[in-house]
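User: quick one
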Amino acid sequence: MTDAALPITMTDDAQPRSPRRAPEALRAVGGALLGLGILGALWAFGGWIIQRDPSLFIFRDFAPGPTLSRFWTMVQSGEAWRMAGPSLNRVGSGLGLAILIGVPVGIVMGRSRLFRDLANAPFQFLRMISPLSWMPIAVMAFSTWDGAIVFLITVATVWPVLFATAAGVRRIDPAWLKVARNLGARPLHLLTSVILPAIAQDVFTGIRLALGVAWVVLVPAEYLGVTSGLGYAINDARDTLDYARLGATVLVIGVIGYALDLLCLLAIRRLSWLREEAR
Amino acid sequence: MRHRDSTAAAASAHRHGAGPQSGHSAHVRVSDLSHAYRRGGPLALGGVDLEVRPGEIAALVGRSGCGKSTLLHLIAGLATPTAGAVHINGARVTGPSPRWVMMFQAPSLFPWMTVAQNAALGLRFTRRAHLVAERIPRLLRLVDLAALADRNAQELSGGQQQRVALARSLATEPDLLLLDEPFSALDAFTRRALQADVRRIAGELGLTVILVTHDVGEAVAMADRAFVMAADPGRVVCETALAPASREPGTPAFEAERTRLATLYETHAARRDAA
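Assistant: Done. Structure below.
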């Protein structure tokens, strides 16, 4: 059969393409540094205005100088980690619970039309309730302050995880499931080999959103009875009029939040299977 | 393949008209098969009977909507017929199985996997991961993709992706390959190369193949026998053996056979479709 001798290479034109060009990455990092620089300049400008106005004298420690030096001692003495540790623990527990609940329920919601019809209205209703409005109920329902805070974070973060998961499941190409079944996949295979890898990037996009919400909800939640964590530190610094410490704590919150978001972004990049050229 | 020698010989003997029934290529019998997508709805298939012998490449030809793809899905066990039955090697088909594998128009590779991982899916699903290291490189060589084994599936051209799908279908060593217009989205060059490749590979492995196509030329180039189907309800209206000498597109023998099949289709199916 001479057909077999057709030059296969003629039709096979795909060449390897570099996934990310160096100038692009350089540009992204440069932009981020410049943006942070502008933010720092605005902060310094605000500090300069406070310094010039005697009526704002007590707030002068909010300026970059005092705040940054306090931040540095905070980091060196380990105070920053002692504050952040319990907070990270609470966010981790709350977000972990939200993932344990949100991912399975999101998968069911994405797969089942009936469940979607039933659950959509109540879920959207619950989602729109500010998590902090559960605070009094949480305080009554849980025997420990920590339990109440974890509950608040879970309530706040379950929705982005759940809805992102459901949206990811609905975008799964039905042909992938047909192909898998055709090759002998059992229901568990469909979950582990098709559904979970297909939605991983969506789930982590939801987790990234959820983490932002959790980090925001954390500080007011830690105004509750606890005597540890970043929210407590903010409250404590305000009560003791230690504005350098307050400013430094705000900086710690920002730095950790930014780092966590960056970790999520890296996870999404890593799990994302959609190639640039296929977009 | 473990059964390459015996079955390839059997299949080629069969193609010359005298082959004994092979243990490794499938014998397919479709009896009085009817199917409606809704209960009480119009029949997509109405009483189809056909038989495909071991090692044979059979083509189901007909215009779109004649139920040929439905018939293939029913043979594959991906849908349950309203009435009638499909038997493969004497056993009634009740669901999908790695013994008979369907290849679709779209390759539908998993985009988060490499070429080799995609090809190995069937082995992993059927708990034969220990065979991956030995079998997958060989299959990728068979479909001319050995050099691309570690590429992401999305980086391949359409024809290469369909080759991966072919390797994926063959990995579980099926007896029966069901092809649902698998090359219709490809350009003419790639399509011709793949048609020839599938015929060669099916011959080497002694596979039974059922091919659904609306392209009469594709049926002539690939199949030993063609079943012409008509619509409303879908049914087989005529069956014909295709001459082995006419598989080379562009040759007078090919053109003559194509014209013969097209005429058969016109007289049997098109007239009834119109009526």
